[in-house]
Amino acid sequence: xxxxxxxxxxxxxxxxxxxxxxxxxxxxxxxxxxxxxxxxxxxxxxxxxxxxxxxxxxxxxxxxxxxxxxxxxxxxxxxxxxxxxxxxxxxxxxxxxxxxxxxxxxxxxxxxxxxxxxxxxxxxxxxxxxxxxxxxxxxxxxxxxxxxxxxxxxxxxxxxxxxxxxxxxxxxxxxxxxxxxxxxxxxxxxxxxxxxxxxxxxxxxxxxxxxxxxxxxxxxxxxxxxxxxxxxxxxxxxxxxxxxxxxxxxxxxxxxxxxxxxxxxxxxxxxxxxxxxxxxxxxxxxxxxxxxxxxxxxxxxxxxxxxxxxxxxxxxxxxx
Amino acid sequence: xxxxxxxxxxxxxxxxxxxxxxxxxxxxxxxxxxxxxxxxxxxxxxxxxxxxxxxxxxxxxxxxxxx
Lengths: 320, 67
Prior knowledge:
The structure holds two protein chains of two kinds. Chain A contains three helices and 22 strands. Chain A is mostly beta strands. The two termini of chain A are 36 Å apart. Chains A and B meet through strand 12 of A and strand 2, strand 3 and helix 1 of B. Strand 12 of chain A pairs antiparallel with strand 2 of chain B.
């Protein structure tokens, strides 16, 4: 008897060759939750009519879909999803394991890949209903690692061009060697020295613009495209170890920040950044505490985007 | 129906509906409806042509068949 709960839900996606043109989803990731919603704005007519006091007609207005999906970070399959988050054309090297290097650059600024995404949403009889979204762009993303949550969590806010309930749910197959990354796989290097931290969050805004054109062709669907300067940054929390970190903020010192999540030599994600610190004073809040140092930062580099942010995903995936 | 996994995972994949482990480049026997669902994922699966399997699929032990 099928289980009529969300436990059998599934998330599948594919990289679109042409934005907004469906591709049968062939990438499958276990996920924790999603909140993609939307549809057409139903607009009631404001026209008055003799003998009527209740609405007599409405029309379908602008359409939009948006919401988050969150999953436990793993190198396998994630590299494909990262083509919609960081860089649509990563450089692949190696002969197993393979490295996939994502480096946002002007050459690929408009090249974040669009996705066809499917959520399998089980009804109360256990039938998993296919809700498919095309032309999906990643508006923003975040990566959080903290011991309490165990797994490194990656979430992305998706924005879609269209929703289709008529497609067939993808037949899922998952990587045989999934390697979930946890807080125990983390190391953070600040200006070349490893710093023990309590937690870290990276986030990015891909500056996706959404417009609705007055045209029958689009039928109310949005025009989605990267349109602004991306902002990548984050914050990490550590003990107040010394004045060194705070001094970096006061001096406006840029520096290297390297986040490594390594389960093994063949399963890891390394994010190398050059950052400026936004500063947070280590205040004394009371008697019985070890002072904490919050370290908010923003990715920046004077000469090259790729020197500001580069992520290398190492996995058994030959391509992403 | 026999299908071959040609996708990017060099360690293979597990078909969720059947629990079968399929190595990259290997074929596996699956029910018709599962095969239909896999074969639309053209970058990852293709039909096996003509060649009989060397050993039967073992879903529990996770063995895959060599082409």
